[in-house]
Design goal:
It contains 18 helices and 14 strands. The protein is α/β, with parallel strands linked by helices and about 475 residues long. It folds into 2 domains: about 220 residues, Rossmann fold; about 250 residues, 3-Layer(aba) Sandwich (Rossmann fold). The strands form 2 sheets. Strands 3-2-1-4-5-6-7-8 form an 8-stranded mixed sheet, sandwiched between helices. It has a 6-stranded parallel sheet with strand order 11-10-9-12-13-14. α5 crosses α6 and α9 packs parallel to α12. The radius of gyration is 24 Å and the shape is elongated. Bound molecules: uridine-5'-diphosphate-glucuronic acid. The site of uridine-5'-diphosphate-glucuronic acid (UGA) has 22 residues, from α9 and α11.
């Protein structure tokens, strides 16, 4: 049911438990739309940094929001009980990392629920914001009851997030939809008060509001569902998006064989409004802290409930295969990899973030190191994190041209905007051989041809420089 909001309500006192990507962005954005928010984390050093306005993650607009609301509508604490006691609504936004089995580890959610139970004195709404499998809201309810909270003194609501790293603040404030899975009208009324400024469009009238696709005339839709449906919406959304990416990657592989161009194919299928253009970029496959983990967890939920979700196993297989195909393209272009110096552009799992979790780029660098290549890598934001993972095995460059300097080839692994705007003449002069293998299709083929590159991308024809093809017609074509 889509709800028409009526809102002119007073701010809500909110506690957000967890200050990771989701918790921190949620806390800052809830303060931005007018609420009084206290964000709790048990890491005291992190709380101290946040209280000074230092964002521990690379996230567009987050530092601005911290600066705007800190000490006024937004504060940080390590004291869960104090935070919860003063709050009408408690968002749980702690991590749900994958277990070896593929299931999400819900032990942090459980222990926060038990802690919260000890502090409840009057009616409160507990909101699960962490990505969790279906039935988690039932489990949270059970934990609260077991810890002595009387029924009627709380409600549990599922309010999944659809935030992409790098654009999380805009995704929150200009969401495609807000999903509130509430089985109780009382809890839903409180959630409507919280999201009222977005769902009525009133927030977008403020002079300093973050600009984006929504406005007073075009507010954010608010969808009320059952708690179970909301939990499924989150997992099913991520699974569908991952499936779209694997689909276009499979089509790209077919394009390579038949000599078609995947950008034309994606454009053609994306013009069908039922399909749409977004999430049809082929490449090295999806990574990050969400899609790989959520697909595994969703499959596991299916198998526990006797529902076959093997479709998703194929999505995962295609995804991992993209890395192998990329390494094969490197061998086709360079013959052997042992002893070669490879310039690498991009380490993060996608552009606009410093996050390396499940990054295809890191997996490829590790494969190159295992094959005996030497690697000089550049990333605009992720080098400090990469040093911790790759240590002394990789040389880190200060810019893209330094990564290319005297390298046997340059490979593009992350779709950073600045990698699509390189000075190609300078790049060609920096490289030992003008070979660019692009896992993210950042350049038009014609541009690379004009600059004399041997350019290999995904689902498109390989460009060969004139001088390199003379007398060599059978290799790597
Ligand atoms: C994803 C979802 O997009 C969010 O809606 C969701 O809230 C979030 O997971 C989550 O569950 O918390 P995120 O992981 O930040 O967000 O990143 P995306 O922008 O979705 O990209 C995921 C991966 O897919 C990246 O590795 C990206 O390079 C890849 N991708 C994306 C493609 O290969 N092709 C595309 O067309 C789009």
């Amino acid at each position: 049911m889509t709800i028409e909001p009526t809102d002119s309500s007073p701010p809500v006192q909110i506690a957000v438990v967890g200050s990771g990507y989701v918790g921190l962005v949620t806390a800052a954005c809830l303060a931005e739309i007018g609420h009084a928010v206290i964000c709790v984390d048990n890491d005291e050093a992190k709380v101290a940094g946040l209280a000074r306005g230092e964002a521990p993650i690379h996230e567009d607009l987050l530092t601005e929001l911290l600066g705007r609301h800190l000490g006024r509508r937004l504060s940080f604490t390590a004291d869960l009980h104090a935070a919860v006691r003063g709050a009408e609504v408690i968002f749980i936004a702690v991590g749900t990392p994958p277990l070896g089995s593929g299931d999400a580890d819900l032990s942090y959610v459980e222990s926060v629920a038990a802690e919260v139970a000890r502090s409840l004195r009057e009616y409160r709404v507990i909101v699960e914001k962490s990505t969790v499998p279906v039935y988690t809201s039932d489990w949270i309810t059970r934990v609260l009851l077991r810890n002595g909270v009387p029924p009627g003194q709380f409600d549990v609501v599922s309010n999944p997030e659809f935030l992409r790293e790098g654009t999380a603040v805009s995704d929150f404030l200009h969401a495609d939809r807000i999903v509130v899975g509430a089985d109780s009208d009382r809890a839903f009324a409180l959630m409507s008060r919280i999201y009222g400024p977005l769902a009525s469009g009133r927030y977008f009238e403020n002079s300093g509001s973050v600009p984006g696709s929504h406005s007073l005339q075009n507010p954010v839709p608010l969808l009320r569902t059952s708690a179970n449906s909301a939990e499924l919406i989150k997992h099913a959304s991520n699974a569908f998006l991952a499936m779209k990416i694997s689909f276009i990657n499979a089509v790209a592989n077919l394009c390579e064989v038949v000599g078609a161009d995947v950008s034309e194919v994606a454009q053609g299928i994306g013009m069908d409004a039922r399909i749409g253009h977004r999430f049809l970029s082929p490449g090295l496959g999806y990574g990050g802290s969400c899609f790989p983990k959520d697909l595994k967890a969703f499959r596991s939920v299916g198998s526990q409930l006797g529902v076959n979700l093997d479709l998703l196993a194929e999505v995962e297989r295609i995804n991992l295969n993209q890395r192998e195909r990329f390494l094969k393209k490197m061998r086709d272009a360079l013959w052997t990899l042992r002893g070669k110096k490879i310039g690498v552009l991009g380490l993060a799992f996608k552009g606009g973030t410093d996050d390396l979790r499940e990054s295809p780029a890191i997996a490829i660098v590790q494969s190159l190191l295992a094959e005996g290549s030497s690697v000089v890598a550049y990333d605009p934001a992720a080098i400090a994190n990469a040093e911790r993972i790759l240590g002394g095995d990789v040389v880190f460059a200060k810019d893209p041209y330094a990564a290319a300097d005297n390298s046997d080839a340059l490979i593009i692994l992350t779709d950073w905007k600045e990698f699509a705007e390189l000075d190609l003449s300078r790049l060609r002069k920096s490289l030992r051989y003008p070979i660019v293998i692009d896992g993210r299709n950042l350049y038009p083929l014609e541009v690379m041809r004009q600059h004399g590159f041997h350019y290999v991308s995904v689902g498109r024809a390989t460009v060969f420089p004139q001088s390199h093809t003379a007398g060599v017609t059978k290799l790597g074509r």
